[in-house]
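User: Run a structure prediction on this.
Assistant: Running it now.
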Amino acid sequence: MSTPADSAEAPDSPVATGDTAPPVGPPPATSDAPSNQPAGDSGEPPHGDAHGEEQKEPAASSIAFTATLIVLVGLALFGRRLFAGLFTDDGVRTWATMFVGVTVQALPFLVLGVLLSAALTAFVPASFFAKALPKHPALAVPVASASGVILPGCECASVPVSAALMARGVTPAAAIAFLLSAPAINPVVLASTAVAFPGQPKVVIARAVTSLGVSMLIGWLWLLTGKGGSWLRMPKSRHAEGTGRLEVFRSSMLHDFLHAGGFLVVGAAAAATLNVVVPREWLDTVASNLLLSVVVLGLLAVLLAICSEADAFVAASLTQFSLTARLAFMVVGPIVDVKLIALQAGTFGPKFAVRFAPATFLVAILASLVVGWWLL
């Protein structure tokens, strides 16, 4: 039987209010221990294994970087001399000449682009972009697109940079516009295009105008859909918090060079093979149809996944195709290819990638046709 005192206290008790009664006995003494205990008191750093892997990864990356660089330079300097006895057929000689020529021409621009991209990632804080962009999302999109002209970055680096922008409060539409424009219209890319197409400044202008237009259109389309929040998974930084700027610069440079250098070699080999192995009649048939040639070279850019600092030299070697078709190759490559689709899916989620890649490819093809008809 309850006492009057008990009855008076009943309304304040959990049982009287309908809440679940607390467990009998004293509360667990260790419930808050993990949150109050310093990380160093656990006997092992919370990320000890990861830190060990990070220590091993730079050494492996340095070895791979050095080996890749030696192979590329050796192939460029001594390739034809070393394999002169094997290159007896005219077709094989032509293949070797084109392969080495494209690689040697593109490699300096690739290295410069990787260095500038790593410097951007390491030394330019993401908060700078958040302060520089307009608050209104529709106005922030063209400003973010235009900033790609002065802020170089390869397509591999643009994904983590745009992810950092989103994490710092930049509207996703503006970050996506920067993701598309930075690797396509930065000074290194435009300079390499001018070198690859000497005496044809209209090609450089057409590439800049088309890529800038595509980045703005995709940014505005992202705003118009109104469903971007459910499609986009907010990314995490590739570098651990507190990592020094020099370490971020070094690791970004190694990562981007190893990835881009490998794809450059594959792209140069594919372009040389396309010109030598594929029958001339087939190429002429495809090249004679404007729409078909634009779509085919666009798909080829997706498959080859060549770095934007080097793709102009591959495009210039495809002399069977019109300038409009080669423009499509240079516009599609920096914004949608197999490595970018995988990188975007891992960073922003598969829902984003399966919608973003087809939409970007379609807009890039249509824009290349329009600008090619207008300028080329």
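Residues 1-58 have pLDDT under 50 and may be disordered.
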